[in-house]
Design a protein that fits this description.
The chain is an alpha+beta fold. The protein is built from 13 helices and nine strands.
């Protein structure tokens, strides 16, 4: 939903806080967007003034969380003394836009792509979906491998175990909300929970749900594919199936798609993109080819995902 960010966990600063332990909720991106002034700017003071609690209708910590999620999901980005709202976010969230109340699964998929595919202010999200391969896992089992990843990214930065643990817990609850012995707040419309990417198979034990994703529109898949392509293989006219399915930061990994689902989507891209993306399978060499794609072509993929 934003300007392109660098794609790998090693090329952006490690970030493990800011959400105040609140998973992203359905209306929070809209709440942030509603603060936009003429010219597409949001004042930084919007999130810190005494009036913010009344303006957003939530507590002080939640206001800080809304700010974090709006940045992490690419709704807005730092611009001098304020935040500038992205044009794609405006097209989606404005009144009368593609999805003004963030009700469409496509909005949730785009938010997930930004967090787990682009790794901007969301190191744990990126690491979880790109580096964890165990069939099942607990939060405790993930803490030490995540700490090692954090040290590799920034050897000088000392992160406390409690910070990483809270970030992991927030990440897991974003996709698989707690179901027993928790407050009604824990059930408050987690935007990413509807995607079916992660499930709690036993108390405290999680597993990815791999396979076809019925709510993932081919437009959102195509947008993610081109975004991944632009940031990892810019200038290349062809991309191997293996890269789409298995490379770090790829749609296959980030969306937890199985090989057959990826192949079916890639085959359908020729018609969907009106020939600008094309699948070939010749002599065992499976590739996607691309012609020149304008910014408007990429935006049109998103628009069609909201049809």
């Amino acid at each position: 939903m934003a300007r392109a960010q660098k794609n790998s966990g090693g090329s952006t600063p490690a970030h493990f806080s800011g959400h105040e332990t609140f998973p992203l909720r359905q209306m929070w991106l809209k709440k942030a967007f509603e603060q936009t002034l003429a010219g597409g700017l949001i004042k930084k003071s919007t999130f810190t003034d005494d009036s913010a609690i009344a303006e957003f209708g939530v507590g002080k910590n939640m206001v800080a969380s809304i700010r974090h999620w709006a940045l992490a999901c690419g709704i807005m980005f730092e611009d001098g003394e304020g935040f500038r709202v992205g044009s794609l976010a405006t097209e989606i969230l404005q009144d009368g836009g593609l999805d003004p109340y963030a009700e469409s699964p496509t909005t949730a998929w785009l938010a997930h792509w930004q967090l787990a595919g682009r790794c901007y202010r969301s190191t744990t999200w990126y690491w979880l979906f790109n580096h964890v391969t165990a069939p099942t896992f607990t939060r405790q089992e993930l803490e030490e491998p995540l700490a090692r990843f954090a040290r590799e990214l920034d050897p000088k930065h000392r992160l406390s175990t409690s910070t990483l643990s809270r970030d992991l817990e927030t990440c897991l609850r974003s996709y698989a909300p707690r179901t027993a012995g928790c407050s009604p707040e824990d059930f408050a419309e987690p935007l990413l929970g509807e995607l079916g990417l992660l499930q709690e198979v036993h108390k405290g034990q999680y597993a990815f749900r791999r396979g076809p994703k019925a709510s993932l529109h081919n437009g959102a898949f195509a947008y993610a594919l081109v975004d991944f392509w632009d940031r990892t293989a810019e200038g290349q006219s062809a991309l191997a199936f293996e890269a789409v399915a298995y490379a770090e930061g790829s749609p296959g990994r980030v969306f937890k798609l199985d090989e057959e689902s990826i192949a079916q989507r890639l085959i359908s891209l020729t018609d969907f993109s009106r020939g600008k993306l094309a699948w070939t399978d010749s002599a065992g060499l499976r590739q996607v080819h691309r012609k020149s794609l304008s910014k408007e072509d990429k935006r049109e993929m998103i628009r069609r995902a909201y049809d």
